[in-house]
């Protein structure tokens, strides 16, 4: 994958692709897109560079927003707090950041790093730590490679900052989550500082170009009056899971996460069947009415509006909505025992073992 | 007040006096005394110096434990975390700390700074920020003088640290409180960094010698088989409020604070009357059965066991216990409008105006 320049217009595709790979969570990328477009218009375009173009001793830092997606929707970040977080981290480390990383190539966090890259003039590396969206800070490939989330710096829209030094990445999640809640529900973070040498193995590569391509496919197919599902499956190695209409939706907020279940009555070739999608911010498990697991975290369950072909977040799921669900295989690192311990069904409290896309198992 | 040396044996008196000025809160000084005795035995005695002996450009830093007293009782601090917090603050500021301050000359925090002083070899300045115990971080004379609580460093017994930079001292309380809760209920803190020049006006002077003298009086009177109440009133300018037996006690934990009310049936010259003491960690208001306020925060309501003459914390209040309550006037700074806004009855949710000791008002 070679490097490329991102213009304000490219952000439409990137946000669209980020919403698709967000598997329903990670917040609506629209806000991040607004921030990033404004930043690019003010400071200039952003260079997305291939990992191999980064020097081994360059300090690479993921930037992201941490908090509840519902808060993010209501609270357009002031912008300065991401820079504040980045500068805070530089001050703690006594080193200059040389390149930015996208922590989460799904949802809101797929576009926020572009705003920071534009404002700082730093390149953004083509890749991320999840290859999708996940709800917690430690759920990144960096953790699998022994990279520490700390020191982490949080900055809020009021001018408060927090720096945590922690014994492991679960502790970072715990302490930073509380601070983000106190700060009004969301904060900008700079975390997982790593050298270029480490980044080259610890990062999931190419996911920024992937979400850009996904967004371009969705836009092109919609312009051609086609539903983008088939073209996306072909481009991403995915499979159409089900198509149907939501007939029931349960929601509850548990520990800051939007949990719930959507019941979907199948249509087209799935007519006569009933499915359930369970979500915790992201869509995590799809089961059929026999209790068989059709798709499961860490594989991606991506939702498109069956009529208009646009990605649907879990907040947008509502009674009567027609959806098409598409499954994408997770990055191979997530399917290892270490990966599954971090983001597999067991961590989220489901009783079944991981079932790779294509396989089946009875739900626990 | 001239400077003096504190030996391990002196810590008995200091802990006793700290328990008295703790007005029932701030945690049992016993744990802090154990820590401090061990530190003095290992590293040597501690020099308590008069504020005027400190250079104007010396960096002075209060050290304390932050958290729920009940947790502190169960969790003997590892000791190293106070040093960790202090070193963390030095690293953030890029300056060496030259002298330590006691944040709270009441409860547990009256003895913890001695452990840190012994381990670092730094002098401890004779004074504190409260002249008693109060439940929240911003409730110090430093706040009245415009000293910022941030940067504040927290360290826990597991090896986690947090640094907050905040827009005001209420925000520091809010963010640091959450982190202390996450860290297991309590953390060691280094906060309110200030130059010697600022310390000399912002600190309440002489309170370390005061608690030492109070403790020595309690010990001497008990050895002489006298109840220490009268001698303490004479030495501290206090007044005997009431004497009686606890006939009812209500407790609830609200927002991390141990709130409650003790009902006391008067004895001796108070026979025939019923009183109520309301507490939020510390004893804050004393009313009689006509609803008249007999004593109120920020003035000190100190409890002694009426039989054995030792200070009683609010956790130790129980049905049947005979107590003598002694009122001490708060430092004049606490009785100003600014002081009352920070620690007066209104801040704690009581409807009455502040009634200085000796005056009376109907409870709101």
UniProtKB/TrEMBL annotation, chains A, B:
Gene3D superfamilies: CV3147-like, CV3147-like domain
InterPro entries tied to this protein: S-Me-THD-like_C, S-Me-THD_C_sf, S-Me-THD_N, S-Me-THD_N_sf
Residues that span the membrane, as ranges: none
Lineage: Bacteria, Pseudomonadati, Pseudomonadota, Alphaproteobacteria, Rhodobacterales
Organism (species): Pseudoroseicyclus tamaricis
Domain of life the protein comes from: Bacteria
Protein name in UniProt: DUF917 domain-containing protein
Record-annotated S-Me-THD N-terminal domain positions: 9-164
Ranges where the S-Me-THD-like C-terminal domain occurs: 168-357
């Amino acid at each position: 994958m070679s490097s490329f320049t991102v213009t304000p217009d490219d952000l439409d595709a990137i946000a669209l692709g980020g919403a698709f790979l967000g598997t329903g969570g990670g917040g609506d990328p629209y806000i991040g897109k607004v921030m990033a477009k404004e930043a690019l218009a003010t400071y200039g375009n952003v260079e997305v560079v291939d990992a191999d173009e980064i020097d081994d001793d360059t300090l690479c830092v993921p930037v992201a927003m941490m908090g509840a997606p519902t808060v993010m929707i209501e609270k357009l970040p002031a912008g300065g707090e991401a820079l504040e977080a980045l500068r805070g981290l530089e001050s703690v480390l006594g080193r200059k950041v040389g390149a930015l990383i996208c922590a989460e190539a799904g949802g809101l966090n797929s576009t926020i790093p572009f705003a920071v890259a534009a404002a700082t003039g730093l390149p953004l590396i083509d890749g991320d730590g999840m290859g999708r969206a996940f709800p917690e800070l430690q759920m990144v490939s960096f953790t699998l490679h022994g990279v520490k989330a700390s020191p982490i710096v949080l900055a809020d829209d009021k001018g408060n900052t927090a720096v945590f030094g922690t014994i492991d990445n679960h502790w970072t999640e715990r302490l930073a989550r509380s601070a983000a809640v106190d700060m009004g529900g969301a904060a900008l973070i700079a975390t997982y500082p790593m050298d270029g040498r480490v980044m080259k193995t610890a990062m999931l590569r190419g996911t920024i170009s992937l979400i850009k391509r996904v967004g371009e496919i969705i836009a092109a197919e919609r312009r051609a009056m086609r539903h983008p599902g088939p073209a996306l499956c072909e481009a991403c190695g995915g499979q159409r899971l089900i198509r149907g209409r939501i007939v029931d939706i349960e929601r509850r907020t548990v520990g800051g996460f939007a949990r719930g279940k959507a019941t979907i009555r199948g249509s087209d070739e799935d007519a006569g069947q009933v499915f359930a999608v369970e979500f915790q911010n992201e869509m995590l498990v799809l089961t059929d009415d026999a209790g068989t697991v059709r798709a499961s975290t860490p594989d991606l369950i991506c939702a498109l509006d069956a009529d208009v072909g646009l990605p649907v977040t879990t907040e947008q799921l509502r009674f009567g909505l027609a959806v098409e669900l598409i499954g994408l295989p997770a990055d191979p690192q997530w399917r290892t025992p270490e990966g599954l311990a971090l983001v597999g069904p067991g961590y989220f409290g489901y009783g079944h073992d991981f079932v790779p896309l294509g396989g089946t198992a009875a739900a626990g």
